[in-house]
Amino acid sequence: MAQIAFIGAGPAALYTAQALVRMHPDIRIDMLDRWSKPNGLIRYGVAPDHLGTKRVARQFTRLFERQGVGFFGGVEVGRDLDLCELRDLYDVVVLAVGLHGDRHLNIPGEQLPGVRRSGALARWLNGYPTATRPQPLGSRVVIVGNGNVALDLARMIAKGPDELGAAADPALFAALETGRVGEIHVVGRSEAAKAKFASPLLRELKALKETQIFVEDLDRTETTGLKSTPPLAVLADLHGSGPADARCTLRFHFEKQPVEIVGKRQVEAMAFRAKTGTLTVPASAVITAIGFEEAPDASLRRSAFDVSGNSHKLAPDLYCVGWFRKGASGSLPDAREDGISAAQSILSSIIPSNVAGREGLAALLKQRRIATSTL
Amino acid sequence: MMKISIFYATETGNSAILAEDMAEHLTERLANGQDVQVIDLASAKLNQLQKDALLLFVTATCGEGELPRAVRPFYDALISERPDLSGCRFAVFGLGDSCYADTYSAGGYLFEQALLALQAKKLLRRGLHDASGPELPDDAGRAWLDKVIQKAR
What we know:
By secondary structure, chain A is of the alpha/beta class. Helices cover 30% and strands 21% of the residues of chain A.
């Protein structure tokens, strides 16, 4: 029986494993993850108020419960064991570690206290076990980014505790004192028409109970006649929505280039370059939501492999999937598609041999006194 | 002997899993004398809509109330080639997320309308599952399937 190990147990690994099991039930799969629980970004990235999306994880429980996939949590390849050791133990090893570093703006003032990172903040709001307790946000929040991560954070901060839903832990939001935020600014470089906001997520903002929404920099003459062109039409529709006596205002800004985060000991404002001059927004917190890249502490580096983004196969016994393969873009449907084609690629050339597999890995970890978490 | 084809349209995989679970449920429930097939609409052909089979559709809703990207070729072929489905019996189960209220379960609605326009006979009201609701998709799917079987007999 062929034995395959995944490094990483997030969506990329899970969809690949699901496809492998579907196409070839007679395969033994193990997943290693540096976190103690599987599901990666479904657990620590998907917004906790998006219960329906969180529940995509339901389909993966059967992999572990019924389909014999093994889980070794709290194990980091590159620290606890080397990749070559793992390759000796399995017929195929799949790199599915993702990219969990927050991209930086690289502008002055970025090191000031009060500057937060979207990935780290999402991990906190999802109850990531070792995330350090963040400081409260204060009353004015600037979110830099024109994508769905920025929208998720803006929406969650704007929500009152009764709007968050069953999957969110109110205590984690209370630590940020989200209820005291009176102004949220979502600022991005792109023009409104090119913002990477998904329209359903924009539309969802209309349901906010405590927040009034304004959209700056939207040429309203341009949006008439463009009713069917999201996101412009949706943004135009959002402008002015929400109760007039709202606790909070959410303001969108476009075509603003980040210049500097201003403050003495703590964030006080953020400055942007606009077409017509400078925009300075007073802020108690700045959240960057401009994408993800390799984290400085990543133990497996893309540069160590010939990751071109074209092929899943790196060597006859080594494959890569998901963000680690093609960079940090794409959502769950993309991960599923990628996983299916990775599984086809693996099955087309895997040759089962007499490797030590699961038992060999367990013995090695025991010998090194590395405690692992199981499910 | 009942012949049942379960077609699924999925983007995150939920509909695929549900379709497989439904097939398993049917196999258990009908013991012997059934012929249940699970078919991914991403790779299905129009001639798989067989007149002697009970046609079940399990479909997700995506984006702006659209069908999953991968099944659009099948749907477009259905609309443009207009196969005659008179005599076919079908039922649709739509998965949705009430978080996106405007487009809730729109994918299921699209299929239902397309099949009705081709003279197929709808056996039962569209089944629904809300990903943000309290019910498990499996439970909703089984309850719906039991009603379908009752009607089909």
